[in-house]
Amino acid sequence: MKKQVKKAATLFLLACVTMMSCDTSKKESEKNMIEKVSFGKTTDGQETELYTLKNAAGMEVKISNFGGTVVSWTAPNNKGVYEDVILGCDSVAGYNKGVPYFGALIGRYGNRIANGKFTLEGKEYTLAQNNGVNALHGGLKGFDKVLWTATPIEGEEPALKLTYTAKDGEEGYPGNLSVEVVYTLQKNNALKIDYKATTDKTTIINLTNHTYFNLNGNLDSDILDHEVTLNADKFLPVDKTLIPTGELKPVTGNVFDFLKSKKISAGINDTTDTQIKAGGGYDHCWVLTDSSKTLKPAATVYEPKSGRVLEVFTTEPAIQFYTGNFLNGTIKGKNGIIYKHRSGLCLETQHYPDSPNKPAFPSTVLKPNETYQTTTVYKFSAK
Ligand code: GLA
Protein backbone atom coordinates (compact mmCIF):
# COMPACT_ATOMS: atom_id res chain seq x y z
CA MET A 1 0.00 0.00 0.00
CA LYS A 2 2.74 2.38 1.05
CA LYS A 3 4.56 1.55 -2.19
CA GLN A 4 1.47 2.39 -4.25
CA VAL A 5 1.08 5.77 -2.55
CA LYS A 6 4.74 6.50 -3.17
CA LYS A 7 4.34 5.53 -6.85
CA ALA A 8 1.26 7.71 -7.26
CA ALA A 9 3.04 10.61 -5.60
CA THR A 10 6.03 10.17 -7.93
CA LEU A 11 3.74 10.06 -10.96
CA PHE A 12 1.91 13.18 -9.77
CA LEU A 13 5.22 14.96 -9.25
CA LEU A 14 6.42 13.93 -12.70
CA ALA A 15 3.21 15.21 -14.28
CA CYS A 16 3.63 18.52 -12.46
CA VAL A 17 7.23 18.89 -13.60
CA THR A 18 6.22 18.12 -17.19
CA MET A 19 3.37 20.62 -17.02
CA MET A 20 5.63 23.20 -15.50
CA SER A 21 8.32 22.74 -18.10
CA CYS A 22 5.69 22.93 -20.87
CA ASP A 23 4.42 26.08 -19.25
CA THR A 24 7.91 27.63 -19.09
CA SER A 25 8.68 26.78 -22.71
CA LYS A 26 5.34 28.29 -23.70
CA LYS A 27 6.31 31.45 -21.84
CA GLU A 28 9.72 31.42 -23.56
CA SER A 29 8.12 31.35 -27.00
CA GLU A 30 5.56 33.95 -25.95
CA LYS A 31 8.48 36.15 -24.93
CA ASN A 32 9.66 36.23 -28.52
CA MET A 33 6.24 36.85 -30.03
CA ILE A 34 6.13 40.21 -31.79
CA GLU A 35 3.36 42.30 -30.32
CA LYS A 36 1.61 44.85 -32.54
CA VAL A 37 -0.44 47.76 -31.23
CA SER A 38 -1.82 50.95 -32.75
CA PHE A 39 0.55 53.93 -32.64
CA GLY A 40 -2.01 56.55 -33.72
CA LYS A 41 -2.69 58.41 -36.94
CA THR A 42 -0.41 60.40 -39.24
CA THR A 43 -1.31 64.00 -40.10
CA ASP A 44 -3.07 62.72 -43.23
CA GLY A 45 -5.16 60.25 -41.21
CA GLN A 46 -3.27 57.01 -41.86
CA GLU A 47 -3.15 54.38 -39.12
CA THR A 48 0.31 53.52 -37.81
CA GLU A 49 1.55 50.55 -35.80
CA LEU A 50 4.07 49.86 -33.09
CA TYR A 51 5.85 46.48 -32.94
CA THR A 52 7.66 45.12 -29.88
CA LEU A 53 10.66 42.87 -30.37
CA LYS A 54 11.88 41.00 -27.26
CA ASN A 55 14.75 38.62 -26.71
CA ALA A 56 15.24 36.01 -23.98
CA ALA A 57 17.84 38.18 -22.21
CA GLY A 58 15.15 40.80 -21.50
CA MET A 59 15.83 43.48 -24.11
CA GLU A 60 12.79 45.15 -25.68
CA VAL A 61 12.85 47.25 -28.82
CA LYS A 62 9.74 49.05 -30.06
CA ILE A 63 9.65 50.06 -33.71
CA SER A 64 6.95 51.84 -35.68
CA ASN A 65 6.17 51.48 -39.37
CA PHE A 66 5.93 55.30 -39.30
CA GLY A 67 9.37 56.34 -40.47
CA GLY A 68 10.75 52.92 -39.49
CA THR A 69 11.24 54.67 -36.15
CA VAL A 70 12.89 52.99 -33.17
CA VAL A 71 10.65 54.39 -30.43
CA SER A 72 12.05 52.77 -27.29
CA TRP A 73 14.87 50.39 -26.49
CA THR A 74 15.69 48.90 -23.10
CA ALA A 75 19.23 47.94 -22.15
CA PRO A 76 20.66 46.54 -18.90
CA ASN A 77 22.81 48.52 -16.49
CA ASN A 78 25.59 46.84 -14.50
CA LYS A 79 22.99 45.59 -11.98
CA GLY A 80 20.99 43.93 -14.73
CA VAL A 81 18.22 46.54 -14.68
CA TYR A 82 16.70 47.20 -18.11
CA GLU A 83 15.80 50.85 -18.81
CA ASP A 84 14.88 52.83 -21.90
CA VAL A 85 18.00 54.40 -23.41
CA ILE A 86 16.69 56.35 -26.41
CA LEU A 87 14.71 59.53 -27.03
CA GLY A 88 11.27 59.29 -28.62
CA CYS A 89 7.56 60.04 -28.31
CA ASP A 90 4.62 58.13 -26.79
CA SER A 91 2.64 58.05 -30.03
CA VAL A 92 2.81 59.22 -33.61
CA ALA A 93 1.14 62.48 -32.52
CA GLY A 94 4.44 63.50 -30.93
CA TYR A 95 6.34 62.84 -34.15
CA ASN A 96 3.66 64.71 -36.14
CA LYS A 97 4.48 67.86 -34.18
CA GLY A 98 7.96 67.74 -35.70
CA VAL A 99 10.91 66.12 -33.96
CA PRO A 100 14.55 66.09 -35.16
CA TYR A 101 14.46 62.58 -36.65
CA PHE A 102 14.22 60.70 -33.29
CA GLY A 103 15.01 57.01 -33.98
CA ALA A 104 14.03 57.31 -37.63
CA LEU A 105 15.24 55.74 -40.83
CA ILE A 106 16.88 58.41 -42.94
CA GLY A 107 16.81 58.51 -46.73
CA ARG A 108 17.01 58.74 -49.60
CA TYR A 109 20.11 60.74 -48.72
CA GLY A 110 21.29 61.02 -45.11
CA ASN A 111 22.79 64.35 -44.02
CA ARG A 112 23.34 67.42 -46.18
CA ILE A 113 23.57 68.15 -49.88
CA ALA A 114 24.91 71.65 -50.55
CA ASN A 115 22.32 74.15 -51.81
CA GLY A 116 19.94 71.25 -52.46
CA LYS A 117 21.52 70.61 -55.85
CA PHE A 118 23.57 67.88 -57.48
CA THR A 119 24.42 66.72 -60.98
CA LEU A 120 24.18 63.12 -62.07
CA GLU A 121 24.99 61.80 -65.56
CA GLY A 122 24.98 65.39 -66.85
CA LYS A 123 21.57 66.30 -65.44
CA GLU A 124 21.08 68.73 -62.58
CA TYR A 125 18.62 67.78 -59.84
CA THR A 126 17.04 70.21 -57.37
CA LEU A 127 15.98 69.18 -53.88
CA ALA A 128 14.05 71.03 -51.19
CA GLN A 129 16.30 73.37 -49.19
CA ASN A 130 14.97 72.24 -45.82
CA ASN A 131 18.01 73.19 -43.71
CA GLY A 132 19.02 76.77 -44.45
CA VAL A 133 20.22 76.68 -48.03
CA ASN A 134 20.96 72.96 -47.89
CA ALA A 135 18.98 69.76 -48.31
CA LEU A 136 18.95 67.59 -45.18
CA HIS A 137 18.01 63.95 -44.49
CA GLY A 138 15.96 63.20 -47.60
CA GLY A 139 13.80 66.32 -47.82
CA LEU A 140 10.45 67.61 -46.60
CA LYS A 141 8.95 64.12 -46.45
CA GLY A 142 11.95 61.85 -46.20
CA PHE A 143 11.94 58.18 -45.23
CA ASP A 144 11.50 59.27 -41.60
CA LYS A 145 7.97 60.51 -42.34
CA VAL A 146 6.62 57.84 -44.69
CA LEU A 147 4.66 54.71 -43.82
CA TRP A 148 6.67 51.54 -44.36
CA THR A 149 5.14 48.11 -44.97
CA ALA A 150 6.05 46.00 -41.96
CA THR A 151 6.46 42.22 -41.81
CA PRO A 152 7.20 40.74 -38.39
CA ILE A 153 9.52 37.71 -38.42
CA GLU A 154 9.20 35.74 -35.20
CA GLY A 155 11.90 33.54 -33.74
CA GLU A 156 14.65 33.40 -31.17
CA GLU A 157 16.04 36.50 -32.84
CA PRO A 158 12.86 38.38 -33.75
CA ALA A 159 13.00 40.77 -36.69
CA LEU A 160 10.91 43.42 -38.38
CA LYS A 161 11.19 43.75 -42.13
CA LEU A 162 10.24 47.17 -43.49
CA THR A 163 9.83 47.96 -47.15
CA TYR A 164 9.17 51.19 -48.98
CA THR A 165 9.32 52.23 -52.62
CA ALA A 166 10.24 55.85 -53.20
CA LYS A 167 8.88 57.07 -56.53
CA ASP A 168 10.93 58.45 -59.39
CA GLY A 169 11.07 62.21 -58.66
CA GLU A 170 9.93 61.86 -55.05
CA GLU A 171 11.62 64.65 -53.06
CA GLY A 172 13.49 65.49 -56.29
CA TYR A 173 15.56 62.32 -56.52
CA PRO A 174 15.67 60.26 -59.73
CA GLY A 175 14.58 56.61 -60.00
CA ASN A 176 12.00 54.37 -58.37
CA LEU A 177 13.94 53.15 -55.37
CA SER A 178 12.85 49.93 -53.62
CA VAL A 179 14.17 49.88 -50.08
CA GLU A 180 14.18 47.05 -47.56
CA VAL A 181 15.36 47.52 -43.99
CA VAL A 182 15.44 44.60 -41.54
CA TYR A 183 15.81 45.23 -37.81
CA THR A 184 16.89 42.03 -36.00
CA LEU A 185 17.05 41.80 -32.22
CA GLN A 186 19.85 39.38 -31.49
CA LYS A 187 20.29 37.10 -28.47
CA ASN A 188 23.36 39.06 -27.34
CA ASN A 189 21.46 42.34 -26.87
CA ALA A 190 22.43 43.73 -30.26
CA LEU A 191 20.10 45.29 -32.80
CA LYS A 192 21.26 44.59 -36.34
CA ILE A 193 20.04 46.83 -39.15
CA ASP A 194 20.35 45.49 -42.69
CA TYR A 195 19.67 48.00 -45.45
CA LYS A 196 19.10 47.02 -49.07
CA ALA A 197 17.93 48.96 -52.11
CA THR A 198 17.63 48.79 -55.89
CA THR A 199 16.71 51.44 -58.44
CA ASP A 200 15.42 51.57 -62.02
CA LYS A 201 17.38 54.79 -62.86
CA THR A 202 20.79 55.97 -61.73
CA THR A 203 20.31 57.71 -58.39
CA ILE A 204 22.11 58.60 -55.16
CA ILE A 205 21.59 56.91 -51.81
CA ASN A 206 22.85 57.20 -48.23
CA LEU A 207 20.66 55.40 -45.67
CA THR A 208 21.09 55.56 -41.92
CA ASN A 209 19.26 55.48 -38.61
CA HIS A 210 18.95 58.57 -36.42
CA THR A 211 18.50 57.11 -32.91
CA TYR A 212 19.41 59.45 -30.03
CA PHE A 213 21.04 57.44 -27.24
CA ASN A 214 21.29 58.37 -23.58
CA LEU A 215 22.79 55.40 -21.74
CA ASN A 216 22.06 56.90 -18.34
CA GLY A 217 18.61 55.31 -18.21
CA ASN A 218 17.31 58.69 -17.11
CA LEU A 219 16.35 60.53 -20.27
CA ASP A 220 16.03 63.72 -18.26
CA SER A 221 19.82 64.12 -18.23
CA ASP A 222 22.51 65.15 -20.69
CA ILE A 223 25.13 62.99 -22.39
CA LEU A 224 28.19 65.06 -21.47
CA ASP A 225 29.60 62.40 -19.10
CA HIS A 226 29.38 59.65 -21.70
CA GLU A 227 32.81 58.40 -22.75
CA VAL A 228 33.23 57.90 -26.47
CA THR A 229 35.69 56.06 -28.68
CA LEU A 230 35.60 56.56 -32.46
CA ASN A 231 37.83 54.33 -34.57
CA ALA A 232 38.48 57.17 -36.94
CA ASP A 233 41.76 58.93 -37.57
CA LYS A 234 40.24 61.70 -39.71
CA PHE A 235 37.11 63.84 -39.72
CA LEU A 236 35.46 66.14 -42.22
CA PRO A 237 35.69 69.83 -41.30
CA VAL A 238 32.57 71.78 -42.31
CA ASP A 239 31.68 75.30 -43.39
CA LYS A 240 29.22 77.53 -41.52
CA THR A 241 26.26 75.68 -43.05
CA LEU A 242 27.71 72.30 -41.97
CA ILE A 243 28.71 71.23 -45.48
CA PRO A 244 32.10 69.43 -45.59
CA THR A 245 34.83 71.61 -47.03
CA GLY A 246 36.28 68.58 -48.81
CA GLU A 247 39.29 68.27 -46.53
CA LEU A 248 39.94 65.04 -44.56
CA LYS A 249 41.59 66.33 -41.41
CA PRO A 250 43.62 64.16 -39.02
CA VAL A 251 42.06 64.09 -35.54
CA THR A 252 45.37 64.07 -33.73
CA GLY A 253 46.09 67.19 -31.72
CA ASN A 254 42.53 68.51 -31.66
CA VAL A 255 39.21 67.97 -29.86
CA PHE A 256 38.06 65.60 -32.59
CA ASP A 257 40.42 62.89 -31.38
CA PHE A 258 38.32 60.04 -29.95
CA LEU A 259 40.79 57.31 -30.88
CA LYS A 260 41.09 56.68 -27.15
CA SER A 261 37.99 56.80 -24.94
CA LYS A 262 37.21 60.36 -23.85
CA LYS A 263 34.40 62.16 -22.03
CA ILE A 264 32.28 64.21 -24.42
CA SER A 265 32.53 67.16 -22.01
CA ALA A 266 36.32 67.31 -22.49
CA GLY A 267 36.13 69.12 -25.83
CA ILE A 268 32.52 69.91 -26.68
CA ASN A 269 32.58 73.45 -25.34
CA ASP A 270 35.99 74.38 -26.71
CA THR A 271 34.80 77.32 -28.75
CA THR A 272 38.40 78.27 -29.56
CA ASP A 273 38.06 75.40 -32.04
CA THR A 274 36.37 76.81 -35.15
CA GLN A 275 34.84 73.41 -35.97
CA ILE A 276 33.20 73.07 -32.54
CA LYS A 277 31.89 76.58 -33.07
CA ALA A 278 30.45 75.70 -36.49
CA GLY A 279 28.66 72.61 -35.15
CA GLY A 280 27.57 74.10 -31.83
CA GLY A 281 29.36 71.05 -30.44
CA TYR A 282 30.03 67.78 -32.24
CA ASP A 283 28.05 67.45 -35.47
CA HIS A 284 30.62 66.05 -37.86
CA CYS A 285 31.39 63.05 -39.99
CA TRP A 286 34.32 60.92 -38.84
CA VAL A 287 36.10 58.84 -41.47
CA LEU A 288 36.74 55.34 -40.15
CA THR A 289 40.39 54.31 -40.21
CA ASP A 290 39.38 50.91 -41.59
CA SER A 291 37.74 51.77 -44.90
CA SER A 292 36.85 48.17 -45.76
CA LYS A 293 33.25 47.18 -46.42
CA THR A 294 33.38 44.48 -43.74
CA LEU A 295 31.43 44.75 -40.50
CA LYS A 296 34.01 46.45 -38.26
CA PRO A 297 33.97 48.22 -34.89
CA ALA A 298 33.32 51.92 -35.45
CA ALA A 299 32.43 53.39 -32.05
CA THR A 300 32.01 52.62 -28.36
CA VAL A 301 30.10 54.63 -25.78
CA TYR A 302 30.41 54.05 -22.03
CA GLU A 303 28.25 55.68 -19.38
CA PRO A 304 30.00 55.49 -15.98
CA LYS A 305 26.95 55.80 -13.64
CA SER A 306 24.99 52.90 -15.16
CA GLY A 307 28.00 51.01 -16.53
CA ARG A 308 26.20 50.66 -19.86
CA VAL A 309 28.32 50.14 -22.95
CA LEU A 310 27.16 50.61 -26.53
CA GLU A 311 29.30 49.26 -29.35
CA VAL A 312 28.65 50.18 -32.97
CA PHE A 313 29.78 48.02 -35.89
CA THR A 314 29.25 48.96 -39.51
CA THR A 315 30.07 48.16 -43.11
CA GLU A 316 29.91 51.91 -43.87
CA PRO A 317 33.03 54.09 -44.29
CA ALA A 318 32.00 56.86 -41.89
CA ILE A 319 29.95 57.88 -38.88
CA GLN A 320 28.19 61.15 -38.09
CA PHE A 321 28.63 61.83 -34.38
CA TYR A 322 26.02 64.35 -33.33
CA THR A 323 25.63 65.46 -29.72
CA GLY A 324 22.05 66.78 -29.79
CA ASN A 325 23.19 70.41 -30.03
CA PHE A 326 19.91 71.53 -31.59
CA LEU A 327 17.80 70.09 -28.75
CA ASN A 328 16.68 73.09 -26.73
CA GLY A 329 14.11 71.93 -24.20
CA THR A 330 11.07 72.54 -26.38
CA ILE A 331 10.17 68.91 -27.14
CA LYS A 332 8.17 66.81 -24.72
CA GLY A 333 8.96 63.14 -25.19
CA LYS A 334 7.97 59.80 -23.68
CA ASN A 335 6.42 59.98 -20.21
CA GLY A 336 6.27 63.79 -20.39
CA ILE A 337 10.05 64.22 -20.21
CA ILE A 338 11.35 67.41 -21.79
CA TYR A 339 14.41 66.71 -23.91
CA LYS A 340 17.05 69.22 -22.95
CA HIS A 341 20.07 70.48 -24.80
CA ARG A 342 22.42 67.54 -25.52
CA SER A 343 20.22 64.92 -23.87
CA GLY A 344 20.92 62.42 -26.64
CA LEU A 345 23.77 61.48 -28.95
CA CYS A 346 23.55 60.00 -32.45
CA LEU A 347 25.96 57.66 -34.17
CA GLU A 348 24.74 57.73 -37.75
CA THR A 349 26.73 55.24 -39.81
CA GLN A 350 26.87 56.49 -43.38
CA HIS A 351 28.76 57.73 -46.43
CA TYR A 352 30.10 61.27 -46.31
CA PRO A 353 27.67 64.23 -46.44
CA ASP A 354 27.46 66.07 -49.77
CA SER A 355 29.21 63.23 -51.63
CA PRO A 356 27.16 63.89 -54.81
CA ASN A 357 28.99 67.26 -55.07
CA LYS A 358 32.41 65.98 -53.98
CA PRO A 359 33.90 63.68 -56.64
CA ALA A 360 36.85 62.82 -54.35
CA PHE A 361 34.52 61.32 -51.69
CA PRO A 362 33.51 57.63 -51.93
CA SER A 363 30.62 57.37 -54.38
CA THR A 364 26.98 57.30 -53.27
CA VAL A 365 25.70 56.58 -56.78
CA LEU A 366 23.43 53.57 -57.27
CA LYS A 367 22.80 52.28 -60.77
CA PRO A 368 20.08 49.94 -62.06
CA ASN A 369 21.23 46.29 -61.77
CA GLU A 370 23.28 47.15 -58.69
CA THR A 371 22.19 46.41 -55.13
CA TYR A 372 22.88 48.83 -52.31
CA GLN A 373 23.59 46.80 -49.19
CA THR A 374 24.92 47.90 -45.80
CA THR A 375 24.73 46.63 -42.22
CA THR A 376 25.07 48.34 -38.86
CA VAL A 377 24.93 46.69 -35.44
CA TYR A 378 24.31 48.47 -32.11
CA LYS A 379 25.27 46.15 -29.24
CA PHE A 380 24.64 46.76 -25.54
CA SER A 381 26.44 45.37 -22.51
CA ALA A 382 27.42 46.69 -19.06
CA LYS A 383 30.51 46.72 -16.87
C1 GLA B 1 22.14 65.31 -38.16
C2 GLA B 1 22.77 66.57 -38.59
C3 GLA B 1 22.55 67.61 -37.56
C4 GLA B 1 21.08 67.78 -37.28
C5 GLA B 1 20.50 66.48 -36.87
C6 GLA B 1 19.02 66.60 -36.68
O1 GLA B 1 22.87 64.67 -37.21
O2 GLA B 1 24.13 66.45 -38.88
O3 GLA B 1 23.10 68.81 -37.98
O4 GLA B 1 20.43 68.26 -38.41
O5 GLA B 1 20.78 65.51 -37.82
O6 GLA B 1 18.66 67.68 -35.91
TrEMBL record:
One GO molecular-function entry: isomerase activity
Keyword Nucleotide-binding: no
Family annotation (Gene3D superfamilies): 2.70.98.10
Signal peptide limits: 1-21
Pfam families: Aldose_epim
Taxonomic lineage of the native organism: Bacteria, Pseudomonadati, Bacteroidota, Cytophagia, Cytophagales
Cofactor section: Ca(2+)
Stored NCBIfam families: PRK11055.1 (NF008277)
Keyword Iron-sulfur listed: no
Organism listed in the record: Arcicella rigui
Protein EC: 5.1.3.3
Pathway(s) served: Carbohydrate metabolism; hexose metabolism
Family according to the record: Belongs to the aldose epimerase family.
Protein name: Aldose 1-epimerase
Highest taxon of the lineage: Bacteria
Reactions catalysed, as given in the entry: alpha-D-glucose = beta-D-glucose
SUPFAM superfamilies to which the protein is assigned, alphabetical: Galactose mutarotase-like (SSF74650)
Enzyme class: isomerase
Keywords noted in UniProt: Calcium, Carbohydrate metabolism, Isomerase, Signal
Subunit structure as annotated in this protein's UniProt entry: Monomer.
